[in-house]
Amino acid sequence: MDNLLLIVLICSTTIFLSILLILYRNYFRFSPVCFNIRSSKHRRLSLPLGTLGWPFLGETIEFVSCAYSDCPESFVNKRRHRYGKVFKSHIFGSPTIVSTDAEVSKFVLQSDAKAFVPSYPKSLTELMGKSSILLINGSLQRRIHGLIGAFFKSPHLKAQITRDMQKYVQESMAAWRDDLPIFIQDETKNIAFQVLVKALISLDPGEDMEFLKKQFQEFIAGLMSIPINIPGSRLYRSLQAKKKMVKLVQKIIQAKKESGISNVSQDVVDVLLNDTSDQLTDDLIADNMIDMMIPGEDSVPLLMTLAIKYLSDSPTALQQLTKENMELKALKEQLGDPLCWSDYLSLPFTQNVITETLRMGNIINGVMRKAMKDVEIKGYQIPKGWCVFTYFRSVHLDENNYDGAYDFNPWRWQDKDISSCNFTPFGGGQRLCPGLDLARLEASIFLHHFITQFSWVAEDDTIVNFPTVRMKRRMPIWVKRRSVDQY
Known about the structure:
With 487 residues, this protein is of the alpha+beta class. Helix content is 51%, strand content 10%. The chain has 19 helices and twelve strands. The chain has a five-stranded mixed sheet. β1 and β2 form a beta hairpin.
């Protein structure tokens, strides 16, 4: 009996040790102890300091826990103070180099696809598809990005965006009442989505727009879902919603072709259809139009919402912003001229408020890239197959870069260069957001009409930073219309 127990014990121990050995070999094959990269001179290159955490899980649980807290940068800052501005970790299933060094992040973002490619959660890549501008690389990505970027910067589109934004803002604000709370996050999402859809596919409000809104909500709900595509799953329902939206866009594309595509592009679909490249198929164009609607639901409305949040807590900034916009309104009324896009962008303090909102809000916390080869940056080794997380939030809230980094201070941007690598709210490099100028324009228009027509009192609300930035209670405020001679 004792011999049998001994044999069972030995067998159990052997199996347990074998499992541990497999775990060790599979998980720690990337550790600095086992990972041996050699150059042509066979020299050993070191990884940044840090830890890979638990097998399989890595440090993902602590990262997510901090991301949901009031100080989401605490995970990164704790390790930055211990290991330096660039450190290694293991998050979201991948060994990762985390960068809070602005120069290292700039190098990664400006590198081509031979060195780094985008890295996203599997559910997102499933929804976007292989032809998405977010995922494709090389000449096709540069071609599409260049065409869209040039169109977004055109005076023609800026004038159209201004007219549409003014129209939708006024229609929305006309329905506001002083005896009911106004949820700024909802209002700005509705406005920004309609403006962006008009710029992408020339779709006006109506039955198709309402259908698109409904399906789009179903679509984006799966962006950070469990990557299981079976009937009934969140990812499956989101994919079905995208198919319905793509079908609608394809119908619009076909109608444009049948009626004759204008040489003067009226929207992004026109721009891509006018291109002579055989790679820009109707399916690719339709797929990308859906992906490009995401900023209308996410980044642009949050920029406007957060600006109202910060201004509600900063009466001095609000007073100066109101004065600046009231003076512009009075001047244009005196001249009898309508406001044009250049008027909105000419207001210096308004632009400073938007810039400071982008710095503090960190609507895009960071960007993930995957190394396609061994890369050495500033003495740091990034092995092939590892991810790099360029974490903008820690750079934007670093006291070494900004005095009083956690204070809303629009005046800090007076006579300051915003092209610094310490300020990257829209990413950078070849994948710099092509709509950054339009985001500023839309925010400027919304702030102008809101500030000049209303005073308000904001209810308490908090910012949620994960998985995307949003207001917990959708930013409820109580408004009061200004009288004609007020202010």
